[in-house]
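Hey, quick one: can you model this chain's 3D structure?
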Amino acid sequence: MKAQKKRVAILISGGGSNMVTLAQDMLGDPMHPGAPVLVLSNIADAGGLAKARDLGIPTAVLDHKAYDTREDFDAALNDTLRHAAPDVICLAGFMRILTPVFVDAWEGRVLNIHPSLLPKYKGLNTHARAIEAGDNEAGCSVHKVTAGLDDGPLLGQASVPIRADDTPDSLAKRVLVQEHQLYPAVLRHFLTGEPGLLRL
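Sure thing. Here's the predicted structure for all 200 residues.
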């Protein structure tokens, strides 16, 4: 009997480049264990929404500014996601700090990609901080989402060397190339239940 594909929802706030790589990986391989069922954004004109529609993926918008508190927004987010019934939720540039209202409802089923070699440089401005610290390498990490910001068990990492002439922008571009390889690989790994930290 053919294995049932795991349902994947992807949350974005911007152009959705990581969403596209995740979706194309799932849609382009009939044997992939996952299928994209929803792309949701908290920004109505996020560029990734049109890209998702072009790929034939249902989309939704939930404007966080319409809610008085983070908890109210997260409760509405939960309601919207439950209609899509995802097995896994991938945060792909979703620029919201999530509360326990969301995190507890989907515990163990939410993945995030972050542009640093966690546990270094949680939060923003990761590339500038890595350069300023004199690090030899930077990179990206995929982790399970917990209540802590950019915290939770690591599932995969990819690194790039920091060059002497790097700026935050030049470093970000090279790290993004690695993000587009790492996130789809980790999602496959996660959906098939393979243990261990994936390193690219």
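One thing worth noting: The two ends are 33 Å apart (CA to CA).
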